Amino acid sequence: LQPDADAQARAGEPEPAYTVLEEEVLRLQRELKGSIGESASSTEALRASNEELQSMNEELRSATEELETSKEELQSVNEELTTVNFELKNKVEETARINDDLSNLITSMNIATVFVDRQMHINGFTPLSALIFNILPTDKGRSLGDITHRLDRGGNFTEDLLHVLATLQPLEREVASVDGRWYLMRVSAYRTKEDRIDGAVLNFIDVTERRAAQEQVRARDERLRLVAESTRDFAVITLDEAGCVTGWNKGAELMFGYTIDEILGEHFRRLFVPEDRAAGMPEQELQGAREHGRALDERWHLRKDGSRFYCSGITTTLVEGNAQGFAKIARDLTERRLLERQREELLEAEKQVRVQLEAANALRNEFLAVMSHELKNPLNLILVSAELIGRSPEVQDSPRLSRAADAIRRTVHAQAQIIDDLLDLSRLQTGKLALNRSPVRWRPIIERITDALRKDAEAKQLSLSVQAEDLVLFADVVRVEQIFWNLASNALKFTPPGGTIEVRLARDGPWALLEVRDTGRGIAPGFLGQVFGMFQQGDHPPTTRSERGLGIGLALVKSLAELHGGSVEADSAGPGKGAVFRVRLPLLEGTLDSNVPGFQLIAHGACRSTHPARG
Q1: Which has the closest alpha carbon to 200: 129, 115, 106?
Q2: Among 92, 414, 575, 596, which residue carries the largest CB count within 10 Å?
Q3: Helices 399-430 and 334-391 sit at what angle, rounded to 10 degrees?
Q4: Does the pLDDT of residue 266 top 80, yes or no?
Q5: What is the pLDDT of residue 293?
């Protein structure tokens, strides 16, 4: 709208009807311009406000960033405070544990402790202090001199404390209590962490038991000293490190002849014989004691008068404080040494006698063997001649001559048996008797020999009984017969008329036990250990001629039983009460295979044989 231009163009024309409207429009236009101006002004104002708001927003953003930074710093500080708090808590717990440990340590150490300041006022104390001082928990801060105590030392605590605080040197002494107990009192300065002296500490340690032990040791040492000084059978000498005499008891004075004034300070090599001195034996003895703690010796020593005596001694090291030395204890064994020499001479003489006896025994065995062999030849001729005489018609028709021939045969058989026993004993002692082992049934042997002896038993009116199991031995049948024959004939010989003889054979574990029991004259207790000796018989004389013998039967029984690995023993209640002889021989355990020649049996001890069976 441009009203001014339009009005100029129609100036000459007549005014239309709408002029009023135009004016209204113009007015409105003017108001609109005013509104536009006001709107522009408002826009400028709003733009200024917006800029201020933006500026404030930036300030708020900056403040927010600062707040975030402050928050992070506060979080960091909070974390540091948390860490410090945790460490402080650990330190507090550690301090509590240390306090507990310290409290338990003080309680377990059984030490009464009192802490005082430089004015001797009580700063603290342990519960055990109540045993010595009459301290109450309310006494902290009071002077220690005002507190009563149970010690005998009176008012010396003040002097002791002042001395320690003045010199800073610990003080230690033993004090007694009125109830008879002893305490080791230690007074020392109380130092702070900054090494500042802030008082003193008193410790009281109960040493009653230790002091009593020391008194016992002191009394024992005194008794030992008195014993060492008064003993006369042993010489007790003490030496210094160089070996010079520092102690000399009465026994040493009697043994060596020197008084203590004469020997004190002298080297103990003076007591050795010249040859031992030259060989350096005194120095070697001391060196041995240094290295091993002790040195034993047995040697000849020298007396003051120049005589020698044989002495046994021991030298040990002595350590007392910083001093070191030696102690030598010696004993006079001269008489024992002389007796040992005599014994050695007797032993040497005994060896020579034993050699001579062994030679004589060998000659005796050789003589017995030769004599037995030489005697058997004429006996065989006598036996053959007696057999020929007994078979002649003249003798058979004459009862008297027949009895004489029969007596000759029995006598020759008996003498031949004695000679055979002598030969067997000789072979046993010279080791020339060998066993021919085979399975042997023992019961038939016993029955056969018993039947052979039954006629003689009936002649003496003896009761002869046999009770035998059927046992098998692995033995020499001839030697088994000899064993039983000698035992049975021995019982028959020494049993008086009207007596009894019992023979029993039974199993005894792995052994066959043969027992021959009689009611004969018995055996004296002192002779039981000698009954199996060669040529041994009882002390009492035989009552009849038939009881005479050489005493070799039982010796042969023992030797043959032991040769088989068995044993023999005798028992008797005494003279006139009979006797019993027991022989044990090993049993044979196994089976006999009859399908093959020979046999294979396993005896005790895994003994095997393939010899044909005998007996």
Answers
A1: 115
A2: 575
A3: 150
A4: yes
A5: 83
What's the rounded Cα separation, in Å, for the pair 567 and 376? 31
Q: What is the pTM of this model?
A: 0.38
Q: How confident is the model at residue 611 (pLDDT cuts 50, 70, 90)?
A: very low
| Distance from C-alpha of 452 to C-alpha of 413, rounded to nearest angstrom | 13
Q: In whole angstroms, how far apart are CA 323 and each of 236, 274, 493, 579?
A: 19, 30, 86, 77
Which tokens sit at 346?
A: 């007797």
Q: Name the residue with higher pLDDT: 220 or 266.
A: 266
Residue 160 near residue 140, CB atoms below 8 Å? no
Q: Any idea which residue has 């047995």 for tokens?
A: 298
Averaged pLDDT score across all residues of the chain: 79
pLDDT of residue 427: 66
Range 493-523 burial, b when 16+ CB lie within 10 A, else e: bbbbeebbbbbbbeeeeebbbbbbbbbbbbb
Contact 505, 514 (CB under 8 A): yes
Give the whole-angstrom CA distance, residue 189 versus residue 201: 6
For 328, residues 6+ apart whose C-beta sits below 8 A from its C-beta are 235, 236, 237, 238, 239, 268, 313, 314, 315
Distance CA 431, CA 481 (A): 20
The whole-angstrom separation of Cα 10 and Cα 264 is: 173
d(CA 102, CA 112): 14
- The residue type of 203 is N
What distance in Å separates the CA atoms of residue 83 and residue 62, rounded to the nearest whole number? 31
Would you state the structure tokens that stand for residue 430, as one six-digit string?
């010279």
